[in-house]
Amino acid sequence: MLCYLLEYAPDHLSFNTRVNHPALAFTGLGAGELLHCLLDRLRNHTPWGGSKARIISSSLAALATLAWPSALLLSSTDNAFTSTPPDRHLTATGPWEGNHLFDSFGALGTTILLPIFTLVVTIWVLRRRIGDASLRRAVFIASGPVLVATAFACLQLSWWPAADAQLVVLAAVAAVAGFSQLNLQRLFLLVSVCAIVVLPGLFTHGPRAPTDNLADSLASSEVVSSIERDLAHWLHRRTPAASPVVLSSPHLTPALAYYGSIHGLGTLGVENAAGDMAAIRMVRATSPAETIALLEAHGVSHIVLPSWDTLLDNYVRIGRKLPGDAPLPEDTFLHAISRWALPSWLQAVPYPLPQISGLENDTVVVFERTAESSERLALARLAEYFLEIGNGAGAANLRERLRAFATEPGTLPSLGQIDSALGDREALARTLTALHSAVASGEADYLPWDRRVSLAILLTQIRLLAPAKIQMQQCMDSMDAESLHRISAGTLLKFIALSRIHETPFPHSELESLAQ
Hints:
mainly alpha; 5 strands
């Protein structure tokens, strides 16, 4: 009871039977009293029943023992044997494919040998009356929690670590009793059985051979942790006005919360069942209307997809009730953004991944929920995203779609950058002609702020310095802190350089400090 209050009071008392429930305290006290009565009768050979006080105490102990099982039956929420998304994550990515032991019996292999061996030794010690009476009583008492935890573990695999912890205690007590009367033959048999139990685990989980790769020489958790810290700080700096709410892997979300005070949905905590279910509904959504409604309802501002952590894929499989190795359904929101079929209210933001040896081919894709924009502006921003992260092929794939808006001043800067990156001089000449015409006619006077920055950058690159200075001055006149936070780090560096080239100073020293 004290542990429960320390964990939850005074914030909330949810009485969730999946976690430390107060009924567990009453069940433990009742079971202990019943065990005491049982041992007292066996030791003193007293008849069943006894005095009226003994009958009342035994009855109360039996009622207290039923407290937690009753809470499980009466609970309207998930209980200890209900599979939740974290449990399914544990069972859907490896050999633990089911929720209980018999679903995964073939894949577990030698995992169940140690419990079986420990129970066999315990039965042997008790039946053969090995050791003195006090040792046998200790073995008998230690076997009680093991039997209960093992039964729970067979019904729900998430209980298996608790059963293992109890087995360690039982194995130690049984070993003391068993070794007290061992001869050479029994010792050889015991060592042989232990070798059969332990050796398969050593082959499966033995140390890996060292390599010259830095990412392999470092602990993988240290490498990932350094990236998580950098990502959390970057996200926090990008959205200083309000803390972002992130939809990401249940492994990454707690790290972002710890390092950057960033809120998130999916985690591996059993208390976060509502957040997990919301994340599942989002990634498995089949229509843009459903997706945006869910994102807005939970205030999600960013979606973060690290290439080395694909646990969000498991959320889709859980939501669709698919096996762990099934491909992602093509009609889901997660599959759509993974293949860059972005809705017009979602914008990719370049995140500069720290350069770590061995992770050169890894990426972190960050999407930011923005206001609804037109298709041409969404394509232009995505093309510039590809160019900034060095994905020339992705930008080239968008060029033909952008050519459908070849007369729009908001798309011409992106189209010109693609032509320049591909070395297509003829296409670049046509784009620049259209761009010069749009600037001269005044069509570029009503661009969004980030599009005007791109236009000023391209005009400077093609040596149209006078129009570029005009665009830069208009950028300075309409600039605010939110505008600076909206553009990428690479674009911001170019913008600062252009302000010096064209001698267009920042309107306020605070904005200049923020930009730098």
